[in-house]
Design a protein that fits this description.
2 domains; five-stranded mixed β-sheet; alpha+beta
Length: 264
């Protein structure tokens, strides 16, 4: 009597399980690569550890590999910190694009060294030098400077960022009929530029602030004429509304911005 061979039923969709695991691992791999490209060594360890912890919490990996000494000593990042880190990376890329666009729009002023662009600690800095925008000891912008201000305002208008306008001077004391000190001159220049930008109606008023710093935030030495000329400026700081440093509690903020100077 011929024995009937019973065949087991094989599911044809089991490959989806392996495929889903592969996609999950691939996603984690590219997130780690992205973090490595954007952070310093300490933050690389923190982000990798946070991602590893998150995937273990979701049950993506069956076991936990032994952590390196560096990872073991680094404080873990919360999910919110990882999200903040990724958001700040996007903001930096966005500000890089804005800087590139402004460098093209302000090419004549940059070539004449009356405007400089740099990526500072707080955001993108558009530095307006006194030589191109003000007469000595005056807070009234030169009429020839208005087209450059319009180009800046048009480019920044559609963005979601705030604009802090900072007045700065050199350390030479001033006393004229209009101003008794460098404090007054720097504040007056900042508020005058803010007023002009407000009148252009391209940037919402609640995004604009102004401050005067006198000679106390120099970008060059005041012992040379060239250095004093660089210090006499109005800086337009494009400010993201997110904190750009991701640091563990109690650690000092080291800043994630790289310094880039155009026209100097």
């Amino acid at each position: 009597m011929r024995r009937r061979v019973q065949r087991s039923r094989v599911g044809h969709d089991r490959w989806l399980v392996s495929y889903a695991d592969f996609i999950t691992l691939l996603f984690a791999f590219f997130v780690v690569l992205y973090a490595f490209a954007r952070a310093d060594q300490k933050k690389q360890v923190q982000v990798a550890q946070a991602i590893d912890t998150a995937f273990h919490a979701m049950g993506a990996f069956p076991g936990r590999a032994a952590a390196s000494p560096a990872a073991a000593s680094a404080p873990p990042l919360s999910v919110a910190a990882v999200q903040q880190f990724l958001l700040s990376a996007q903001v930096r890329d966005d500000l890089d694009r804005i800087q590139h666009d402004l460098a093209l729009a302000l090419a004549p002023e940059i070539s004449q060294h009356t405007v400089a662009l740099e990526m500072g600690r707080d955001g993108l800095v558009i530095s307006l030098r006194e030589a191109g925008f003000f007469d000595s000891g005056s807070a009234i912008p030169k009429p020839a400077a208005l087209p450059a201000l319009r180009r800046i305002a048009r480019r920044l208008g559609p963005t979601p960022y705030d604009l802090r306008i900072e007045g700065h001077t050199d350390d030479v004391p001033i006393h004229n009929p209009a101003f008794d000190s460098n404090w007054e001159l720097s504040a007056a220049r900042a508020t005058r530029i803010a007023r002009l930008i407000l009148e252009m109606k391209t940037i919402a008023p609640d995004r604009i602030s102004a401050a005067g710093y006198a000679q106390y935030h120099p970008v060059a030495g005041n012992d040379t004429a060239e250095g004093r000329a660089r210090n006499r400026r109005v800086d337009l700081v494009v400010l993201p509304r997110v904190q750009l440093d991701v640091a563990p509690p109690g650690a000092s903020s080291s800043g994630l911005w790289r310094r880039v100077t155009d026209g100097d």
